[in-house]
Amino acid sequence: MSLEIKVTKTPKSHLESFDFNKMPPFGYAFTDHMFVADYIDGKWQNLEIKPLENLSLHPANLTLHYGQTIFEGMKAFLTNDNKAILFRPEMHAKRFNRSARRMSMPELPEDLFLKAVKELVKLEKGWIPDKVGSALYIRPLMIAMDDVIGVKPSTTYKFIILTLPSGPYYDRPLSLKAETKYVRAVKGGIGEAKTAGNYGASLYPFKLAKEEGYDQIMWLDGIHRKYVQEIGTMNIFFVIGDKLITPMLDGAVLAGITRDSILKLAKDKGIEVEERLIDVNELGEAYDKGELKEIFGSGTAAIVANINKLAVGDEIMTFDVDNYEIAPMISETINKMRKGEIPDKYGWIVSLD
């Protein structure tokens, strides 16, 4: 297929009027343009970068009724010498297609995914914030476009990429509540896919946790209700003794790209790493012995988010994040790599200049 992308620029950019020192909360500000492509008659076509605009959807659109939609979350950064870069974009393309397969949606050729992301970010380079912890957030998504009431895969789809200037996703340590009533995902379900239903189902228990004063939920498995899966928007890591431990990927846990990067970095730093089942009771026992030293989340939006409080039933565990060693080391290493301050020996950085 042809990868030629039509580019229609906005007649009036609002970049000059955007105040990067007073950015709105994450998700509320968008750049001037979007990328769109249509899947019709079994092929991707109508590739275009165009001014950001609303979509026109029929009330019977399959996405609205049956949730056939997937998305990704990526970021573009500026190095110290003002070059625009992406972090492991090919991994996002691969995960996007894994989600597509699970949701019975057409795969997007990886070269199309990558070219669309790169060309859009190049056009919107001026929107990339240069402050530490800030970035241009990139949201690729695919939605079903058939206008029919019926539980079946759509035959037409739309692929879209949005870009959003964003500051630090979390600007302070987080508190977690282990959720023992509601579950996020089970083996054989859609937990490892980035699809809307996973997040929609989390909103009510998240609301209850917020009302109790917690920032996020720590999800447990749906069978035994005791094995740790992930945090509401992130994978999770524990430092127990001298080991860095994270839940293994079992089909119910999202295969985080930042998670994978952290595991590789930690191993290279000589840190013993384990991917395995983690019984929530084990955390309490390790905490009581003084062996549970750090808890942190990982994800594209936050990179690393320190946890200073974990509630498991009636037990409250608190942590002084100023004493953390592994979490800040990981965060600093990734940030310096993105800024071009240390070599990228992994080939993770893709320059757009």
Highlighted features:
353 residues, alpha+beta, D-amino Acid Aminotransferase, Chain A, domain 1, D-amino Acid Aminotransferase, Chain A, domain 2, 9-stranded mixed sheet, 8 helices, 18 strands
Structural write-up:
It is a single chain. By secondary structure, this protein is of the alpha+beta class. The chain folds into two domains: 6-166, Aminotransferase class 4, branched-chain amino acid transferase, N-terminal domain (D-amino Acid Aminotransferase, Chain A, domain 1), CATH 3.30.470; 174-339, Alpha-Beta Barrel (D-amino Acid Aminotransferase, Chain A, domain 2), CATH 3.20.10. It is 23% helix and 30% strand. It is built from eight helices and 18 strands. It has helices at 62-66, 89-102, 110-123, 196-200, 203-211, 257-268, 280-288, 326-339, and strands spanning 6-7, 33-40, 43-51, 69-71, 74-78, 84-87, 135-144, 157-166, 174-179, 216-220, 228-231, 235-240, 243-247, 272-276, 292-299, 303-312, 315-318, 349-351. Strands 1, 2, 3, 4, 5, 6, 7, 8 and 18 form a nine-stranded mixed β-sheet that branches. Strands 9, 10, 11, 12, 13, 14, 15, 16 and 17 form a nine-stranded mixed β-sheet that branches. Helix 6 links the parallel strand 13 (243-247) and strand 14 (272-276). The longest helix is centred in the first third of the chain and has 14 residues, at 89-102. The model has no long low-confidence stretch (mean pLDDT 96).
